[in-house]
């Protein structure tokens, strides 16, 4: 019986090592963000830890509205409340968070918008691990940890971060922006 358990454990270890090696041997995706173009003359909406399309995190609401050509009813809110804004021409699934009149983060909940390593909603968890490597931090999901959900966080510096919400297989949503706003689990609440 004990021999059978050891063989089972060894088999699991061999499969785990093979999976890691297979992932590590895959060619890396492009290191620049993918992009979504909203139309002729419209901005390109690749998202990085520092920006979403033409909008850099830390811009004032007025600067952000100008960067995307928004005016009137679609201008970014300039009040001090925490609120979300969907700029005119932004791809479906992209929302920008403004806090105290500044753009502080982008939330992505639909496929088609990508970031570094061409990662986005629907990307396999293994792809995130391979693309972002040893700098990746893993923490349990605030509400669904028992189902195997996790947060995979990455940042090149202390002020910007990417956070992927993943189940045991794929990216379900992700966000990018300035610390601490990018770390708010509930967003504006």
Can you put this structure into words, describing what you see?
The protein has one domain (about 45-189): protein yfey like fold, CATH 2.60.460. It has 3 helices and 9 strands, in the order H-E-E-H-E-E-E-H-E-E-E-E. With about 190 residues, it is α+β, with helices and mostly antiparallel strands. The model is unreliable at about 1-35 (pLDDT under 50). It has helices spanning about 1-25, 60-70, 125-130; strands spanning about 50, 55, 85, 95-100, 100-110, 135-140, 150-155, 160-165, 170-180.
How do the strands and helices of this protein lay out in sequence?
Blueprint lengths: L1 H24 L25 E2 L2 E2 L4 H8 L14 E3 L8 E6 L2 E7 L16 H8 L4 E4 L9 E5 L5 E7 L4 E8 L11
Antiparallel strand pairs: 1-2, 3-4, 4-5, 5-9, 6-7, 7-8, 8-9
Strand order of the largest sheet: 3-4-5-9-8-7-6
Largest sheet: 7 strands, antiparallel
Question: How would the global form be characterised?
Answer: globular
Provide the gyration radius in Å: 19 Å
Q: For the terminal residues, how far apart are their CA atoms? A: 54 Å
Order of helices and strands: HEEHEEEHEEEE
Mean pLDDT: 81
- Unreliable sequence segments: 1-33
Provide the β-strand percentage band: 15-25%
Q: How many helices in DSSP terms?
A: 3
Determine and state the CATH class. Answer: Mainly Beta
CATH hierarchy: architecture: Sandwich
What class, by secondary structure content? Answer: alpha+beta
Helix content: 10-25%
């Amino acid at each position: 019986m004990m021999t059978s358990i050891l063989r089972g454990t060894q088999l699991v270890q061999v499969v785990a090592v093979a999976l890691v090696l297979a992932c590590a041997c895959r060619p890396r995706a492009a290191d620049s963000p993918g992009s979504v173009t909203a139309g002729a003359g419209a901005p390109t909406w690749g998202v990085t830890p520092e920006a979403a399309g033409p909008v850099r995190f830390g811009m004032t609401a007025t600067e952000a509205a100008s960067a995307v050509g928004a005016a009137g009813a679609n201008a970014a809110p300039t009040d001090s409340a925490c609120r979300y804004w969907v700029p005119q021409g932004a791809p479906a699934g992209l929302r920008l968070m403004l806090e105290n009149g500044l753009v502080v983060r982008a939330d992505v909940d639909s496929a088609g918008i990508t970031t570094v390593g061409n990662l986005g909603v629907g990307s396999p968890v293994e792809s995130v691990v391979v693309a972002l490597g040893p700098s990746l931090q893993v923490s349990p999901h605030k509400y669904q940890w028992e189902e195997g959900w996790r947060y995979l966080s990455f940042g090149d510096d202390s002020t910007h971060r990417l956070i992927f919400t993943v189940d045991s297989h794929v990216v379900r949503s992700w966000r990018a922006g300035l610390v601490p706003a990018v770390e708010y689990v509930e967003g504006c609440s």
